[in-house]
Amino acid sequence: MTKHIFLSVFSLAVLLCGCTEQKTPEFSKSELRPGGDTTLKRINTRTFIHPSENLDLDQQLDFWDGFSFFRDPWVAAPAATTDRDGLGPLYNARSCKACHIRGGRGKLVGEGTHSPMALLFRLGDLQNGDAVDKHYGGQFQPFAIKLAKPASLAAEGKVKIQYETITGQYADGTTYQLTKPNYQLVDLAYGNLQPTTVISPRYAPALYGMGLLDAISEIDLLAQQDINDQNQDGISAKYNRVVNPKTQQRELGRFGFKASQVSLASQTAAAFVNDIGITNPFFIRDTCTHSQLVCQQASNMGGHDTALEIPEKLHKLTVFMGAHVAVQPTRKLTSEKAQQGRALFYLANCHSCHTPSYTTQSDYPIKKLANQTIWPYTNLALHDMGEGLADNKAEGLANGREWRTPPLWGIGLQQKVQGYQAFLHDGRAKTIAEAILWHGGEAEQAKSAFVNFNQQQRDALIYFLQQI
């Protein structure tokens, strides 16, 4: 049976892309501990929030201190607790935890009109990738702090979500359904969106392993760049170049769904100011636009006009926590079914974008993350994912069809830890199979391979992904 599977997959790969045989790399024991020495010793299905296994006691205390700023809700300023005030004036959530439940992905809302937290909406311009909406800025914020009467601050509005069902069929005749969302911003408080404004949904990602991704050498990443597809494999990895908000220099982007942040520190800072309304060492002003006069007034009355709402020391603690959320060990990766799926993963060429392994920089400043053999299954590069996933929003060098390759490690634990699962940039896919079926553009060949697999092969590939 195993021989039959391998022969049929090889024949399929040649048929689909005309490629020569791709050898499946020999299995390594290091795959069982995808975060290297930082990997959690035992699987924990209660939460993703665990400190890296190799931290000493003092570092664990710093981790939990940083966690308090992730967990606890912020309040409007001025307040008695100056370390926790500064919320808003406009915001998406009161805490990081509200969007990253148990350190994973937040709870999605269904059809209807909502003020969602875990699903936020970035705003851009169809004609100018660096522009934002004149009235609403770069991110839509459905909540606002309450002000003392007679002043009143309006939230920016709500989101109306509708779904369309798309039916398809595998090569063996098995049918499948995909859910296509449609998003509309409604009850707008500050006027209409500009005619060229585009909205891009972003579903809060899981947090584990972020520090290890930050520790991958830029040289190792750029070695995978192939903008003009010189090797003619249909895949043209491209790395984003974005402005570091602290240095104002253009650097390689690696965090965010379009790789628009250069480091974990800047990604954390951007989430603080955009999602919660907390000024910080990277972003020193609230996001009120010129149309939002009451928001500007509320920002000036907050008591932090001469100081940041989260200062450097506390921001660093939060980043330290984020850098050391441990990756969980693999599950039944050595089983026959998982190993069959592993072979299918390589033969379908999934690894061309989802690069399996790296060794982190030996000179990375955070020593506990340095020189670690890790298995995140991502190249952190931008790829054209086709019209089905396009949002028409440009960010840096990323165009409206391009997304950063997300890491795959731990995706099989979503259901067990969170009690639900959702995939892709807006959570539209409720299963791993649905996520694969949404792939297009540069990933069209890999999707076609999956569609042409028989049921046993599809199950084996998905089983492998659930174990890594």
Largest sheet: 3 strands, antiparallel
- Given helix and strand content, the structural type is alpha+beta
> Strands across the major sheet, in which order?
2-6-7
Taken in chain order, the helices and strands follow as: HHEEEEEEEEHHEEHHHHEEEEHHHH
- Mean pLDDT across the residues is 94
Record field, number of beta strands: 14
Rg over CA atoms, rounded to whole Å, is 22 Å
Strand content: 5-15%
Task: State the distance separating the first and last CA atoms.
Answer: 24 Å
Helix percentage range: 25-40%
Low-confidence stretches: 1-21
Work out the helix count. 12
Number of domains: 1
* Overall geometry: globular
Organism: Pseudoalteromonas piratica
Pfam families: DHOR
Protein name: Lipoprotein
Keywords: Heme, Iron, Lipoprotein, Metal-binding
